[in-house]
Amino acid sequence: LPSGLESYLEARVLEANGSYREAMDAYQRAVREAPDVEEVRVAFAGFLIDVGMADRAAELLADRQGLGPEGLRVKALALAQISARQADMADEAEAALRVAIESAPDDPNLLFSLAQTLFLQGKVVEAEQIVAGLREDRPTNSRLIKMHADLLQAAGREEEALDLYLLCSATGPAVQSCREDSINLLVELDRPGEAGEFMLEWLSDDNLDALMQAAALLWEGDRLQLSLETVERVLVRAPDSPRALTLEAHLLSALGRHREAIDRLQRLVKKSPEDVDLIVALAWSLSRSGDLEKARSWLDRGWEQVQDDPMSQQATRCALTAARIEIVADNP
What we know:
Elements: H1 5-16, H2 20-33, H3 38-50, H4 54-61, H5 69-83, H6 90-103, H7 108-120, H8 124-136, H9 142-154, H10 158-168, H11 175-188, H12 192-200, H13 208-220, H14 224-237, H15 242-254, H16 258-271, H17 276-288, H18 292-306, H19 313-328
């Protein structure tokens, strides 16, 4: 066999069998034995990219003149991987990718890498067009759906992005990140209630922190009854959870179930006597249950807590609640 060919064939077999450490050694021998054979060098560089060593792959091909289409392809992919970590390499990677694409205009890996590189450079419109084209033949590819959604959001096309985030939230390797992006975008679009309802589609009863997040979003989105039901799911598993008990009390008050709210709020205030939010909520529920004197007394306690910071949100909340109580009492 010609010099280097035996080691090269051994490397390819070892790579195919998943013996990557041995394949690395065989490739290195092949390049030493046949340093001028492009096929050997390019194959080794491709292997290095696959095992996450794009820097070494780029070095292997850096000074090679007259590379063929496969060599240009591998070099471009190596530079694209490097540019994801080193922003100053993005221009060189883009140029290399465009040269490689001239010889292989339909290569999905080259096109995807170009889209990623353009995205990193802020060239969102062209990147979105490339990914949209790739998705035409791969409509269910979750990686492409996720990237397309990211690009649409970056381009200010939030509703289209949301549709795609929801699509890739159903199945595939990008499920978790797509779900998180869906929630974040719904909140950004001022649709917290929808975000909370979406979370309930897949949350299990043992995911307590996420259930509390969903309950808070539902509360913010005025889905009060559903928020309360979600909190009750948490309390089944964690009956002493301060967060869940506090939110439950606030929700009972907001739903007009003031007797139940008063019972819970009084217990919570005993444990946290300086919590102005609890004090204000208790005062409101007491007023709605007809006990105006106690309501005013609790508000006085609230004022004592905020008097040193009259511009705070809690001070504002005390003032607004006091005004509401007097309006309800027909004492404007």
